[in-house]
Amino acid sequence: MKLFYQQMLAFLLIIVTSIAIIGYSALNFATNQAYEQSYQRLEGYARSLESLALEDEQGLNHDFLSKMQVVMQGEDMSLRIFNNKSEQVYPETPAKLSIPKSIIQSLKRGKVIKIKNDHEDSRVSFSNRDAYTSILYPWRQNGKFIGILWIGSRVQNVEETIKREKRNLVTALLITLMVGLVLSFILSYFISNRVKRLSKATKKIAQGNFNVHLNHGETDEIDDLAHDFNLMVSALKQSHEEIKAQEQRRDQFMADAAHEMRTPLTTINGILEGLQYNAISEADKPKSIALMQSETRRLIRLVNENLDYEKIRSNKLTLLKTKFNAFIVLSNLLTQMKNKSEQENDSLVLHCPEKIEVYADRDRFTQIMVNLVQNALQFTKNGTITISGHRIEHGTQFSVRDTGIGMNEEQKRFIFDRFYKADASRAKLGSGESGLGLAIVSSLIKQHGGKIEVDSQPNLGSTFTVTLYDEGYEKYQK
To answer: Per the database entry, which stretches of residues form a coiled coil (predicted)?
Structure first.
């Protein structure tokens, strides 16, 4: 069953149930009220007759009662009088009526007996033809029980009032039902239409359209759902874009890796063929062998970088962390990178105390700093790369600052992702720029319980800051 019909049915069930309860309660109230008003009117007559009897020393004579009976018959009322022995004394008829002893005892105690319908009350009946609503009123004189007044009104008069109330009530309930039906339709349509909007938007998302936004207020749970839906779409869109970017970087990496591997493999294959067919002279053989070794190292480096990253990413790499003087590592690093920096006409500068203690895996710390300096040399030409280090509270901080091409915000966002290259057009194949260097750096630093930050602006260079904490103060990140 569709939501619209479910809503309609639910609203109608609530309305019909409410109407039934209200109608039943109102009808009972109207019935009781009608009978109660009749009882009050009859008691009023009884008290008046009692007062008249007390004022007249001879009591109510037969002529007065006959005239009173005529007046009361005009209002469909009837009067009977019984003595203290429950024998009818007025009107005088051949068929005498008597009142049960249980009722007499209640009357002697001063209780007024109310009879809703004497044809349905098994205790007493005062008319064989018409049903009466009546009361039995104790008649006292000087505190002494001397008789009983029975005053009755035809039930049909009371029921006429009840029927009129029923008609008015049924009319009101029918109008209420019609209005409720219309309101149920409007509310069901309104709610269903809002749910349909969510359903249509969901289908668009399933079809790959993430440019979906639902306008909403802040009134109810459906608006909250629409708000959460927009947040979900935004997260899905961002995730989708990141996946696409990762796919593009992976494809680019595969293309770069294939190109980088093809070049040394082609070189090695050419030299081997030359050696096989004696196409290379004896004088050139040492140079050819050295070239093959160089190209082989390039292939090994590419494979090792991938293996290193996988080990780090899956936490299969064991760190042997110790305290050591980082100045020695950084000094050796400058010596190793001197030739490469001179090729790019870059200057390497070290600003660091001759004794600066750091708690880390020495080999992996060296790998971190080498990759950062290589990255700086890759994107800096005719510039300066400054390596610095200093102690901070419970840790040591290092930075590599260059004066190269820098990065924009988008590039900074993905710079530590696998396969990402901040400037693919400037990537120098054959120099180790496989798109894994900074990803390895980030993973290693996280495994050390440290952190890395980057500050960069286009054409103003970049600064990578590494923080490694002392033993017991590491902040491991997922």
So the answer is: none
